[in-house]
Structure prediction request, 684 residues.
Amino acid sequence: MTPDIYLDANATSPVLPSALAAAVEAMEGRYGNPSSSHATGLRAKWILDETRLRARRVLGAGPGRVLFTSGATEGIQTAVLSALCAIRERRAAGEAVGELLVYGATEHKAVSEALAHWNRLLGTGLTLQALPVDGDGRHRLDVLRELAPRAAMVCTMAANNETGVISDIDGIAQVLREHGPRAYWMVDCVQALGKLPLDLANTRIDYAPFSGHKLHAPKGIGILYVRDGAPYTPLMIGGGQESGQRSGTENMAGIAAMGAVLAALEEGTTFRGHAELAAMRERVAAALRDAFPGIVFNAPFDLALPTTLNFAVPDLASKDVLDLFDAAGLRVSAGSACSAAKAAPSYVLAAMGLPEWRSAGAVRLSFGPLSDDAFIDAACARIRRCGGALRRHVLDHADGHPGVLQLSSEGRHGWIVFDRRAGQAIVIDPPAPLAGRIAAQLRGQDLRVAAVLGTGADQDGAHARGLLRAALGQDASDPGPLGWPRSSGEALLGDGGRAPALTLGTALLARVDAGEGAALYLLGAAAGAQLPADAVRMVFAGSGVPALHGIARKDVLLCHAADMAGVPFGVASAQEGVRRDDAAAQLAPDALEDFLRRHPDALLVDVREAGETAVGAGTPAGRAALAVPLSRLAEHAAGLLAQPARPLVFFCRSGNRSARAALCLQRLGHAQVFTLVGGLALMR
Ligand code: PLP
Prediction:
């Protein structure tokens, strides 16, 4: 398997070796409870005290409180609870407090959710007010100036986790000094630790939460700084630990590890400084530009942490880049939260006013201040390899048959039928959101589009065809019915009828009227100008199941414009015996070797896209696998069905795509279909 190159440091980071050693020592040698008065307890308490002293120095905490929490989310709750309790008391005492809870529009959800939650629970009845950011992702200080006099609390992060954009903390402080002297101020410093200078006691900041796991300490440890004199209400009460400020026996392993990270920060040689990191970012950016011409970066480098690059590639969805990178062992994340069905554009990038394609296609690449030159070199080499793979491998197919590519978006399926030799493609039922991507893909592969066709006479379909034609630089309106070209040949069909037909390499695509303005298209090998029934391999049938004489066979695939019976394609013959609720059998990663021993004839089928397979060495159990990208499954389905007794084991990166492929084949009637649960990610 390809070794990991972990470029998702803003999500979490590996534990520093000295931090790991400190945590182990805290669990083995100094396992005492720091509240115990005996020597074992005192040895643990020493770790607690030392770490707090270090934290004070590193944060510049002065006389402020420094307490250990479970992470930033807890620190944020504590800060919000403290501020809201104080606001409620002051208001009850007749003091004028603001009515707004102002938070930056690009804050981590922990902040806006905590504000809403505690405001509701405490019945404070304040109004949540997002503070907009400008196109660079920085807070609009002009708006803050207007809101500040009415603000009871203001929350503005130090640096953004998605874009790395660094806030103008001095500018915000000045606005608050002049216009919002009564508002409590929280600055989420999670992404600042180790990357930005901190001198908290010399600022107006009231609360500053930190999280250990973002800087090489383990998950489950955080720090909360509270300015001397800022109100404080414990979130957790009980045994009185942390001087009664945060009860619960301390996470000593986490605190010890945090101490080691703080020691490394103080000592100053472990982590790279700003200039070195900025030089590394330049190299990564150059590799990205080489790999993806047309790439845009979603935040200006001069205003962002040098360790975060957020980018989008025209006509590539973030999932495409993520899958490709992951296959190459490059671990990055989408700049947006994705659900399986639909990628929700990032609210952070949307708040910056970026066009939807840039937020929906955003990829975040983040490295840590522990990175060295060799690591960055390796990352750049792999990024370049990914770009090459993407260009080379999109639309390959075996000679003799046209390739058939499925393109799906929001439950709609489109189909590209193409022949590389002939340099031609025909697009059927293109989903509107993919028009730009389809056009770019075909252009990139030098394929001329002979027709953009529809199967149904609906407005949406006509609109989508128009979008694609426009993206291809053609006249947007349908040349003939459902996009059929003005001039075409004719084919003699198996039933003796004649149909308009287009030639694609050695294949024919014939148009058959399906009634009510709809059409379907038969694809098969041409025999001169004839397309006999037994030559038909596929029918693009929109949302219908045609009853065409002679082609209702098991080896003729019906490709639909939306799922039918839960899958994008089916066979033209009746599917007796295949129950809809049948799920393909699941193979656990640790059961695979044994399964393959028991079924030596089993066929491993890699359903990752071609670029992923090209960059990602490795198949499960080191066995040869047949590459059938999920987007090309329809093209290969007949071949897979031709061996009904041979077990098929589908695999992919995570197990999602292989589960879908397995379901398709199972619905097509293959009785021996398996999917590798958890995918290659668990096969290490
Ligand atoms: N704030 C920011 C800016 C973050 O990046 C994160 C982590 O994703 C959090 C808060 C939450 O931190 P934790 O995981 O320690 O609760």
